Amino acid sequence: MALNIFKKKKSKDKKEELKDIKA
């Protein structure tokens, strides 16, 4: 899960990453 999020949000803001991980 985290791997996919990091890969997808690599170019996005870190805030979105935490949001997806928390969701």
UniProtKB/TrEMBL annotation:
Q: Where is this region: Disordered?
A: 1-23
Compositional bias annotation for Basic and acidic residues: 13-23
Q: Which domain of life is it from?
A: Eukaryota
Biased region (Basic residues) positions are: 1-12
Would you tell me the protein name for this molecule? Uncharacterized protein
